[in-house]
Amino acid sequence: MNIDFEIIVFYALAATGVVSGAMVLIARDVVRVAFWLLSSLSAVAGLYLHLGADFLGLTQVLVYIGGILVLILFGIMMTQRDPGLVKLERKSTRSMATGVGVSLVLFLVLASVINSVGWASRRPASATPTTQDLGTALLTDYVLPFELISVLLLVVLCGAAYLARRRVEQSHA
Amino acid sequence: MEFFTFVGWLLDNPDAGFLPKFIGVAAAWAVGITVFVSVAALFFVWLERKVSAHIQCRLGPMEVGPHGVLQTLADGLKLLAKEDIIPEGADRFLFALAPILAFAGTFVSFAVLPFGPDLVIADLDLGIFFLAAVGSLEAIGVIAAGWASNNKWSLFGSVRAATQVVSYEIPMGIAFVTVAVVAGTLSLNGMVESQNGMFWNWLVFRNPFMPIVFISYYIASLAECKRAPFDLPEAESELVSGFHTEYSGMRFGIFFIAEYAAMYVVSALAVVMFLGGWYTGIAPVDAWVAKSALLANLVGAIVLITKSFALVFLQMWLRWTLPRIRLDQMMYLCLKVMVPIGMVCLIGAALWQGIAGVPADLMGDSQRPAFPVVGSISGLVCFLVATVGGWIWVRGAIRGTKSYQLANYKS
Fold this sequence. Notes:
Chain A is mostly helical.
């Protein structure tokens, strides 16, 4: 019963994630694609929670669903209902081949990396809240990378603001 | 019980009885919260109509029941009986899904929102982070509604809603972080417990920056709920009714309940974060009540719900007093006023915490320094500098927008 319940939850979440991921590719309406993505991302967040990574799971919801997905939907609504977006045209065989090649290389690299890591095969027996340990680790052992990433993100923010600024004076001149 | 111990206990109990028990507990909570949300929404709708009426020198509903208290019940029956219309050309699946998403996004907040010391579904270690994360689900429901309706007004409403909710998550998140810094915990129950004692132990009075953070959070929460003066997503004079223009019957009713439930959630969160949660603020009373667990939960729930209802009333008062702001004013207020002020308060509260106070869980009740003399004087100076500086800054910034808008209109 113990193991059954755990495995049922795991496979239910994994199946939701994979099926929704496939539907992201198959679905034709671009807004439907975004909502399949919602289902897929939620399933991944559920997997994180199931494996005891509570902070990571909620961050997945906050960043991907609350941030990126809303941004995607926003982008779709700001653009017109373009028939080219709704129904993807069949492209030339050369671009098809490029796409397949890139996907294959990416798949092989990811698969080899995933295989080479010795993963724990089961979820930890007693999951404990991870936030405190994460915070301590970020501000002690990993404080330099943490600060570097902060500076990098600040630079990115400034860059985005610079690129998106209004050029009022220039348009008048 | 803490969430992970609870889940761990569930998974480590191989006896066949645990799954039904787990489902039973979950179902009991779900039914309880649904009843609470529905009754609160019915009451709030009646209250809103009464408040608006009295502010406008009218009586409001008077016919159904004494002073019209049963009016919303009658309206609810009418909504149930109404025809369910799905417009032609709508995306039927998303049209049906949208109210559910919007309601679920609000409803799931109750998973961590406490009603009393033990009256909470899951006292998550990540309580406030959880609320920040699920808060965005409602926005997705609203976007889906606007898109699926296949109506220009609905789409405009939902795009405005998305802009507003995503923007105001930033000052709200900064307020959450500030509260977490001062309370020393992310758990909502932990936050309330750190405010035990007399009312000057409440987080809103903990240091001179906290009142500003409270007001900033409250304004952001109005925007998150799409309440006036931030009701641009459903501006009647421009967009008919915004994202729910095409909804009728109970589908519209679900949006309506979700809106009123969201008003309660943000108000209860304000009470938990700033206004002492389930504590009365009078230390002897709390100490006497805490002797019995039953009494503590009962009184705690009454106190917390009363405080939250008071804040909901404040939301209604503001709605019927303030005019709606424009889209550019809304963005300006968020990004150029509230975010910088929030940042200053975050840094100030963190410094204050380092100099004048230790996180509450690191010391006993007797050592809690509620405004030592030197601290209060320096705090007063900080407060004055922040107020005067902020005033000059906002004045300057407002002049800035005026010339900016003029420049825009010329082009």
